[in-house]
Specification:
The chain is built from four helices and seven strands, in the order ααββββαβββα. By secondary structure, it is an alpha+beta fold. The longest helix has 16 residues.
């Protein structure tokens, strides 16, 4: 089993973009991608792009979020990336990306879609300019691992300080939505 157009479409159907014009536009563009692209999950599908999955990982007190420094884009982002053929679902893809990028694993359980975003990826390494159609999920890290985040390109950022790290509207909105919908950990 791997992510499917039906799964992605159902997630979009159940997602309320709220007042964000960017989120409304992203939902529309993602629906078009799913309806018109033969292989929307294939990382080499560049026109108009492909589906990716990412994660908002909050600390147990919900006051910090896990960020990863992306060398190519030269900015702090949520963990995430391409969907791989072995991923059972979009949530599984986001969970795998958290492990790969941070070395930390997330708990199983109810993940929530907290943001959707279509964003431009500049041409590099033989790839043309293209778009990532990102599904961002709220995932829970085992509280015992919170102090284990590696130094350097992975860090816990206080939610109140996200703006000082240049994170974008979809990540800020995803964090806010995750905080509103998550129940505190009882570790």
């Amino acid at each position: 089993m791997s992510p499917s157009v039906a799964e992605a479409s159902a997630l979009l159907e159940g997602f309320d973009p709220g007042e964000s014009a960017r989120a409304v536009s992203s939902v529309h563009r993602m629906r078009e991608l799913l309806e018109r692209t033969f292989e929307p999950f294939l990382r080499t599908s560049f026109d108009p792009g492909h589906v990716t999955a990412s994660a908002v990982v909050l600390s147990s007190d919900r006051k910090s979020v896990l960020l990863v420094y992306h060398q190519r884009l030269e900015r702090w982002l949520q963990p995430g990336g391409h969907v791989e053929p072995g991923d059972a679902s979009l949530v599984a893809a986001a969970s795998r990306e958290v492990v790969e990028e941070t070395g930390l694993s997330v708990e199983g359980g109810a993940a929530r879609l907290v943001s959707v975003d279509v964003h431009e990826i500049p041409a590099a390494r033989g790839e043309p300019l293209h778009y990532h159609h990102d599904f961002m999920f709220s995932l829970t890290l085992d509280a015992r691992l919170e102090s284990a985040a590696p130094e350097g390109r992975v860090m816990w950022c206080a939610v109140a300080e996200l703006g000082s790290y240049g994170v974008d509207e979809p990540l800020i909105g995803g964090v806010e939505r995750a905080i509103r919908t998550e129940t505190p950990s009882r570790s």
